[in-house]
């Protein structure tokens, strides 16, 4: 496991849009913002004509996202090591300064200094304490080298990050529906594009749903990703009801025999109540098409935000019923240790990590590779 284009199945076509078939839903209303449940319940019966007039774009030769860099070469460990270079360099320098050429005695002073330097990676007090205590148990009163201490820290970090298999849970039949949530600026839309490409390259047919309708840039960005990858996308009018886009996306996935439908959601709503109502509404409308959907709800967290990422995302985790985490922007952060408190706080598996800016720079999380890459010399 890791921390964190099979062939194109269609030739590029000129970019075009077709009107999506108007769909009737017993759970959706044409509001651009969530309203109270009683009013919504009275109006739920069908999608309003305006909101249901979204569009479905087929694979095209749309230009690539400006952030697209060349895919990193080498194996998973090499990519992970590169993504964690900023954290590793800062951490190695801090810890190396504790050692003398002839070795260093592991005593209380050493352990306290080690603890303070681990905390700087944003791994949190609890995680730093656990690592420090493990070093004390194994090495106290010994004169040790830097390599010995790093090996001990690596082993403990791997143990703390251990999780059961955290791949996508695919449905036995029909499309697997994945909702993606997270605050604006977390890398949510880019992570969706990378995940779609990752799944497309594994041979699965993917449909994207641009459900963050209150942010025009998100819809445009996801449309470009779809064209780059070679998959279809469902969009709605600006500020259309996100639930109507979600419904149409699942409807399209069923119609074309897609394996996966990935639906973007709003990154910001006015209140926690609005957020919960909107996510609950999206759940209801997709359940109308597939009673077991959504099958996954992935929470995107920004590694560069460090501890702030945890508090920012708490509301989304509570409201959305998340099943896993995507840790984005790992390559741009010197705070890669934040994955430890994230695992502790949310008690959710880290499913994918973003390892760079290229379309291929995403990988399934692997605790052993991550821990090794974090402390490798």
The percent of residues in helical segments reads 40-55%
Main β-sheet description: 10 strands, mixed
Major β-sheet strand ordering: 1-2-7-6-8-5-9-10-11-12
Number of strands: 12
Q: Ends: how far apart?
A: 21 Å
Polypeptide structure, described:
The protein has 377 residues and is of the alpha/beta class. The chain is 44% helix and 13% strand. It contains 14 helices and 12 strands. The strands form 2 sheets. A 10-stranded mixed beta sheet has the order 1-2-7-6-8-5-9-10-11-12, with helices on both faces. It has a two-stranded antiparallel ribbon with strand order 3-4. Strand 9 (296-302), helix 12 (308-320) and strand 10 form a beta-alpha-beta unit. Helix 3 (76-83) packs across helix 14 and helix 11 crosses helix 12. It is elongated, with a radius of gyration of 23 Å. Residues 1-52 and 60-74 have low confidence and may be disordered.
């Amino acid at each position: 496991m890791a921390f964190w284009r099979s062939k194109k199945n269609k030739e590029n076509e000129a970019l075009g849009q077709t009107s999506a078939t108007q769909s009737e839903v017993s759970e959706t209303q044409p509001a651009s913002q969530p309203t109270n449940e009683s009013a919504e319940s009275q109006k739920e019966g069908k999608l309003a004509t305006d909101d249901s007039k979204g569009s479905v774009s087929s694979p095209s030769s749309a230009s690539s996202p400006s952030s697209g860099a060349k895919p990193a070469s080498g194996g998973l460990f090499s990519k992970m090591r590169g993504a964690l270079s900023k954290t590793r360099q800062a951490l190695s320098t801090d810890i190396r300064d504790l050692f003398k050429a002839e070795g260093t005695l592991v005593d209380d002073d050493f352990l306290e200094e080690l603890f303070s330097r681990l905390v700087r990676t944003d791994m949190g007090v609890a995680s730093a304490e656990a690592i420090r205590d493990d070093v004390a148990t194994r090495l106290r009163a010994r004169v040790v080298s830097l390599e010995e201490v790093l090996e001990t820290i690596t082993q403990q970090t791997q143990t703390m990050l251990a999780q059961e298999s955290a791949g996508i849970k695919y449905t036995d039949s029909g499309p697997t529906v994945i909702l993606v949530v997270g605050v604006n600026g977390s890398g949510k839309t880019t992570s969706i594009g990378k995940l779609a490409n990752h799944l497309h390259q594994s041979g699965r047919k993917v449909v994207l749903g641009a459900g963050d309708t209150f942010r025009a840039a998100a819809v445009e960005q996801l449309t470009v990703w779809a064209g780059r990858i070679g998959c279809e996308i469902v969009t709605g009018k600006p500020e259309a009801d996100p639930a109507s886009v979600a419904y149409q996306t699942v409807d399209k996935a069923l119609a074309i025999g897609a394996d996966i439908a990935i639906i973007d959601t709003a990154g910001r709503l006015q209140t926690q109540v609005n957020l919960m109502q909107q996510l609950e509404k999206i759940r209801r409308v997709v359940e109308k098409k597939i009673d077991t959907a959504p099958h996954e709800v992935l929470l995107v967290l920004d590694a560069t935000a460090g501890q702030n990422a945890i508090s920012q995302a708490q509301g989304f985790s509570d409201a959305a019923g998340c099943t896993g985490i995507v840790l984005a922007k790992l390559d741009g952060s010197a705070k890669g240790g934040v994955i430890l408190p994230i695992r502790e706080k949310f008690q959710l598996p880290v499913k994918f990590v973003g390892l760079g800016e290229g379309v291929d720079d995403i990988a399934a999380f692997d605790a052993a590779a991550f821990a090794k890459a974090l402390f490798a010399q």
